[in-house]
């Protein structure tokens, strides 16, 4: 008898022994799936429009079928439009925005190389930690949540640390800040450094022009203003970034995120055939393509203008309620995610719980270094309209009246 498998050998061959099942089917799995409807007015994910839900619900096709490659080609063109880039090395990661973040770092940076990270919220903190884990020499520029960096400060740090890569968050959702990008790419290239920008919370809501602003690597997520379900992450690499990426001394630490394989899977390496690397999220790609189609039909400029108009309407409503916006400078406020200082005398967790219970609306508190400092309200993509802004204001007004002010 084979002790490891439970199989018994006989002169007639091997018979598999049938062990009895000892763990019964869980009761929860014998009930139908239930998921409540909620107004997702937090920093993401957003509510998904019916058209995108329908696209994600189409029958599955094979991830290596020619029709799938055609859809991936469409996605690539849609991302090039959304990013305003002609970069050939443009694709969507199979995973969330964090997947794109790690893909950029793993492929561009080698152990021992110097990296400069601008930290004014949680996303810079994450990039610094990932870079440290992979053995980079990490240098940081740090400001409190809501702070931003001048080009002079960035240039001084680049001259001092001579990094191969500089990271900047365009839409810092943990603070509600949209960071100026003009001129940063030029400064980076002056010091032979690549510019990596996170636009997960800002893409489609605030102006960003990859090629014109000399951004070398840009990524975003599917679940914010793009309005697809979470799980896919557009990313693009400039020719400068590709030269660094494909002339490494050692292979990237991650096989899944290795761009030598992904560039072939996305048809970006010029080879006549695409070979198997991993099984892409077929339904996720269907949904992403549809969301990019909606952005193309709307037009980038119209999308930026619409988000700004709704945000300004919302900001005025908040001030009329006596609330203080966390980002004082209007030009630095992220149109997609508004942050307000926690109203004095209130327990912020109690306010959020009341609004969820009585209005089915999700707002959130701070994240990372901004926890306990602010509330975050997102109106982006499909959710971005004045009716939803009015609904959010009414829920806040109700909560301020009904929740008891603490004596603290």
From TrEMBL:
GO BP terms in the entry: glycine biosynthetic process, by transamination of glyoxylate
Coiled-coil boundaries: none
Annotated EC: 2.6.1.44, 2.6.1.51
GO molecular function, one term: L-serine-pyruvate transaminase activity
Keywords tagged on the record: Aminotransferase, Pyridoxal phosphate, Transferase
Modified residues (N6-(pyridoxal phosphate)lysine): 224
Catalytic activity: glyoxylate + L-alanine = glycine + pyruvate; L-serine + pyruvate = 3-hydroxypyruvate + L-alanine
EC class (word): transferase
Residues given in the record as substrate binding sites: 376
The keyword Transferase is annotated on this UniProt entry: yes
Cofactor(s) required for function per UniProt: pyridoxal 5'-phosphate
Entry annotated with the keyword Cytoplasm: no
InterPro entries: Aminotrans_V_dom (IPR000192), Aminotrans_V_PyrdxlP_BS (IPR020578), PyrdxlP-dep_Trfase (IPR015424), PyrdxlP-dep_Trfase_major (IPR015421), PyrdxlP-dep_Trfase_small (IPR015422), SP_NH2Trfase/AEP_transaminase (IPR024169)
Domain annotation Aminotransferase class V: ranges: 39-384
Domain of life: Eukaryota
SUPFAM superfamilies named in the record: PLP-dependent transferases (SSF53383)
Gene Ontology cellular-component terms listed: peroxisome
Subunit note: Homodimer.
Alphabetized PANTHER family for the sequence: ALANINE--GLYOXYLATE AMINOTRANSFERASE, AMINOTRANSFERASE CLASS V
Family: Belongs to the class-V pyridoxal-phosphate-dependent aminotransferase family.
Protein name: Alanine--glyoxylate aminotransferase
Native organism: Sinocyclocheilus anshuiensis
